[in-house]
Amino acid sequence: MGSEESTATTLVTALRGVLGVGELPVRLRTWDGSVAGPEGAPVVAVRSRRALRRLAWSPGELGLGRAYVAGELDMEGDVFATLEALTSAGRLASRHASPAATVRERLDLLRAAARLGALGPAPAPPPEEVRLRRFGRRHTRARDAAAITHHYDISNDFYRLVLGPTMVYSCAVWESPATGLDAAQEAKLDLVCRKLGLTPGTRLLDVGCGWGSLALHAAGQYGASVVGVTLSPAQAELARARVADSGLGDRVEIRVQDYRDVTDGPFDAISSIGMAEHVGAGGMPGYVRALHDLLRPGGRLLNHAIAGNDEATTDRDPDTFITRFVFPDGELQSLAGTVTALESGGLEVLDVEALRRHYALTLRAWVERLEKHWDAAVGTSTEGRARVWRLYMAACALAFERGLMGVNQVLVRRPGGDEAPLRLRDWR
Question: For residues 357 and 310, which has the higher predicted lDDT (pLDDT)?
Answer without folding.
Answer: 357
